[in-house]
Design goal:
By secondary structure, the protein is α+β, with helices and mostly antiparallel strands. The chain is 58% helix and 15% strand.
């Protein structure tokens, strides 16, 4: 058995640890059983004592209640108390029975018997007490209550207290015993831990003895072996792994020592071979370095050749040459200078000033010598103070100049290099001389490319600046070249057109063209057919109103068709001119024939028939009117022609444009009752330096257009305003309006809007162009804003006279939005101008009306602050009718009315209309403005009527 365990370390350690573990588990189990038994005994004993205490307390409580009810029965003599006593006696007896069942000792038995005795005493005196109560023996009953009740209670209290004290003492004794037993357990546990630690120590010590010491000896022997020392390891006789390892190690040591001598001999032989190999390696490395050096040089030459072959820019080529040559032939300074053409320079380590001096003096110095020898030239000199650097003495400097000859054997460039302290070898000079031949070819190639590219760019710039789209396609329809205008037509960037297939550029082009089917067929025919004639087609772009004509012509080279050139020309202006000519002929024919027809017709009637004088006069008036119309039409043509030729003369004088506006409106208003003419004078300065007849012509044209293009009637409002140094007149109507696309063409001569609603309205299309020429001749301008279907506003502006700026201005400026608005209804132009000027200078916004009907409708729509009215207005409505209409309207009945008329016209109606104040006529205008201002400032607008006195 011992031999079995001694064979391996595992078995020895396992057996030893098994014994230790078995002992530990046995001791632990015994300790655990002991602790469990002690705890179980303590718990059961304590529960028994606690149960006895609880029953004792229950017996005490019920017995006390029994005695209390017994004394209550003796005191109150009620059956309820008697029943309660009997009930408590039963409860106490039951508790005593339960107490007796428990494991009781002698003391418990005595307590039980004493309580039973007490209960028996109560049971004995209850019949006696009942009999006394029934017999009415009060004295005896009282004596019984005093003697028996108190005695029983005292006995019960004493008995219970004594028992509970003993019971608590027993519990305390039990707890003390349990604590002592636990202390014993702790000591036993401590001893167990000590034993366990000792067992672990034994295990570790045995492991160290069996394993650690032999391994330490082996480690020491291994270190000695590694250090080359003699190894003295005692051979172990153990049968386990350590013994086997020790014996094996000893065998290995002997083997190694035997082999060591052989290795030393072989090593000496290898050393000699190594020396020979190192010699060969050195030779090989030298050869390899030479080869690598040659490879690097060849690679640099290859990079140089590649760079100069792919570079197409002259300056880039020179920079590339200097960069690569400085890498192949290191030098402190290097430059490559072109001696012809652009004379560009690439340099390294040289200032621009020095290179300029060199270029200037080259042909008179080194250049002449090179030209004679046709070869390179090297100069040796001493360094200057800049080249010397930190050296404490002068050093040798070597300058090398290598010429570059063109294909015509002309000196075209020179290569310069400077080395400090070392010269260029003959080999390097020859190599550089050969390299310059390749560089000469590269320079000529770049120069040729740049010249070709420049010519190509000039040609491209020429066709790009041609005001026609040009494209060239080959026989397959592939787009090869185009100009900028064509690329813009199909939204294509520069370079995208090269090699674009037929289908691609055709689809892109047709997307922006109306009626693309015809154009597509045209492209097919001119691109793929063999026809030689020139063809053309007109088309229109989608997003624009441009008309384009494309014509195609085949291109031949050496008699062979190579492609087709297509030219797209914008003929919009020619198209518009043709259209304008047609419209001019049509318009002039119509406008001339109409009055001529009337003149000829009425003349024939007068010649062929006998007419009454009245009818003859009527016909003559018609002939005269149509002749004037014809004269005005011819004058318009002549005026426009003179204006465009800058031969029109203007007779400019100081002109009150406001007065001219009123005059023109007075001419139009009687003949157009369906229109409301409103004049709003918001200008402080209305005097201008202008030709009265021409300005009247402008206003007449604008108001005439407003009337003509408002066939349904409506308001025509003329507003005078000042802005900066100009006087503006705005003419606004509520007519047909103008399409936005027509606004830019509106002032073109003979142009008329192509619309059926407007074609019914006559006109030559000359009015607005003439108005524009007149305004520009007066340093003014004319503009228009319009909304289709809502009307138009024409604005003419002209500088007012500078002297006007010296006139006093009202404290209320025209641009104030809160000033009072006054309407003047007056058919006397001079008086209306006088009143308007005075009110305007006083800060009022004035609107002048000639027609009372128009004024009444406008006042109802627009909020006014006061009305100045003349009583003598017309046959259909006088001033009183106008005032009455104001008073009948809810919106205007409280509007203050100021009458401008003679008193004898209104004296009879003064009382009827409540005239409250009179002004003497003629009266100063400032008095009227003062009365209006005072009336409006009082905030009492109750519809009062104010009129002048005689």
């Amino acid at each position: 058995m011992k031999l079995f365990f001694s064979k391996t370390l595992n078995r020895q350690l396992l057996s030893f640890m098994s014994v230790i573990i078995l002992i530990t588990m046995t001791l632990g189990a015994a300790l655990l059983i002991y602790v469990s038994s002690t705890q179980t005994n303590y718990v059961s004993e304590r529960e028994r004592l606690v149960q006895k205490q609880e029953l004792a307390l229950q017996i005490e409580t019920n017995a006390s209640q029994m005695l209390i009810h017994a004394r209550g029965y003796l005191a109150f003599e009620t059956d309820t108390e008697l029943a309660a006593v009997n009930q408590k006696i039963e409860v106490v007896n039951e508790s005593l029975d339960q107490f007796g069942i428990l494991d009781i000792n002698q003391q418990d038995q005595e307590f039980k018997e004493e309580v039973e005795t007490l209960v028996n005493q109560v049971e004995q005196f209850l019949p006696i007490a009942t009999e006394m109560i029934e017999n009415g023996s009060r004295d005896e009953l009282s004596e019984l209550r005093v003697s028996s009740g108190a005695t029983l209670v005292n006995e019960l209290t004493s008995l219970t207290s004594s028992y509970l004290e003993n019971s608590n003492a027993m519990l305390a004794q039990l707890s003390t015993k349990y604590i002592e037993e636990n202390n014993i357990v702790l000591w036993m546990l401590f001893g167990f831990i000590i034993i366990f630690i000792a067992a672990l120590f034994l295990i570790v010590r045995r492991i160290f003895t069996k394993i650690g010491k032999p391994l330490s000896d082996l480690t020491t022997a291994s270190e000695q072996l590694a250090a080359g020392k003699d190894v003295n390891l005692v051979e172990s006789r153990r049968d386990d792994e350590v013994g086997i390892l020790s014996r094996t190690f000893n065998g290995m040591v002997h083997t190694l020592q035997e082999k060591e001598e052989e290795l030393i001999a072989q090593n000496e032989e290898l050393i000699s071979q190594q020396e020979e190999l190192e010699t060969q390696q050195y030779k090989l490395r030298s050869s390899l370095e030479e080869t690598e050096q040659v490879r690097r040089v060849l690679e640099k030459y290859n990079n140089l050749n590649h760079s100069i072959s792919v570079t197409l820019n002259e300056q880039d080529l020179l920079d590339t040459i200097v960069r690569h040559l400085s890498d192949i032939y290191p030098a402190e300074r290097m430059a490559f200078v072109l001696l012809k053409g652009s004379r560009k320079v690439a340099m390294r380590g040289i200032s621009e000033t020095l290179i300029k001096e060199f270029s200037t003096s080259f042909h008179d110095g080194i250049g002449a010598l090179i030209q004679e020898t046709k070869n390179y030239h090297q100069v040796q000199r001493k360094s200057n103070r800049f080249e010397q650097g930190i050296a404490d003495e002068l050093i040798d400097v070597f300058d090398l100049y290598v010429p570059v000859y063109s294909s015509t054997n002309d000196l075209s460039a020179v290569f310069c290099a400077t080395r400090l302290g070392s010269c260029f070898s003959a080999k390097e000079k020859e190599e550089l001389h050969g390299v310059m031949g390749h560089i000469s070819i590269a320079i000529e190639k770049v120069l040729l490319y740049e010249q070709t590219e420049q010519d190509r760019q000039v040609n491209q710039d020429i066709i790009d600046n041609v005001n026609e789209g040009i494209q060239f396609v080959n026989k397959d329809g592939t787009l090869l070249r185009s100009n900028e205008l064509f690329r813009n037509m199909i939204d294509m960037k520069v370079g995208e057109e090269c090699g674009l297939h037929y289908q691609a550029w055709k689809e892109k082009f047709l997307q922006s063209v109306k009626d693309s089917d015809k154009l597509e067929q045209f492209f097919e025919e001119v691109t793929f057919s063999e026809a030689t004639e020139i063809r053309s087609l007109k088309y229109q772009l989608l997003d624009e109103t441009k008309i384009i004509e494309v014509y195609a012509e085949p291109v031949f080279k050496s008699g062979t068709r190579t492609g087709t050139i297509l030219v797209h020309r914008d003929i919009t202006k020619e198209h518009e001119v043709d259209k304008m000519k047609s419209e001019l002929v049509s318009t002039v024919s119509h406008e001339l024939r109409t009055p001529l027809s009337s003149i000829l017709g009425f003349t024939e009637l007068m010649l062929e028939r006998e007419l009454k004088p009245a009818r003859q006069e009527k016909y003559l008036q018609t002939i005269h009117k149509e002749a004037n119309r014809l004269t005005n039409l011819i004058n318009d043509f002549l005026d426009l022609q003179r204006m465009e030729a800058n031969v029109q003369t203007y007779h400019k004088t100081s002109l009150d444009l406001k007065e001219l506006v009123i005059q023109v409106v007075l001419r139009f208003e009687p003949n157009h009752p369906q229109h409301q003419f409103i004049i709003r004078d918001l200008a402080n300065f209305t005097l201008v330096w202008a030709d009265s007849d021409r300005m009247e012509q402008v206003l007449t044209n604008l108001i005439s257009n407003a009337v003509k293009f408002s066939p349904e009637g409506g308001r025509i409002e003329l507003v005078l305003t000042n802005k900066e140094d100009t006087l503006h007149v705005h003419v606004t109507d509520e007519g047909l309006g103008i399409p936005e696309t027509e606004l830019t063409k509106l002032f073109t001569k003979f142009h008329r809007i192509d619309n059926s609603d407007r074609r019914k309205i006559g006109g030559t299309g000359l009015g607005l162009p003439i108005a524009k020429e007149i305004m520009e001749a007066h340093s003014g301008r004319i503009s228009v804003t319009s909304m289709l279907g809502e009307g138009s506003t024409f604005d003419i502006s002209i500088p007012y006279e500078k002297q006007m700026s010296l006139l006093p201005i009202s404290t209320i400026q025209p641009n104030e939005v809160d000033r009072f608005k006054v309407a003047i209804i007056e058919d006397d132009q001079s008086l209306a101008l006088l009143l308007a000027e005075e009110l305007k200078q006083s800060g009022f916004e004035v609107q002048h009306f000639l027609n009372p009907h128009n004024a009444l409708e406008h006042i109802k729509e627009q909020q006014m602050d006061a009305v100045v009215v003349d009583l003598m207005l017309g046959d259909d409505m006088d001033g009183w009718d106008f005032i009455q209409a104001l008073k009948q309207s809810e919106t205007t009945k409280n509007l203050p009315v100021f009458i401008s008329s003679a008193l004898n016209e209104v004296r009879d109606k003064a009382e009827e209309y409540g005239v409250s104040k009179y002004l003497t006529k003629p009266y100063p205008p400032q008095e009227l403005s003062s009365i209006i201002k005072n009336t409006l400032s009082s905030d009492k607008k109750n519809g009062q009527i104010v009129m002048p006195e005689e």
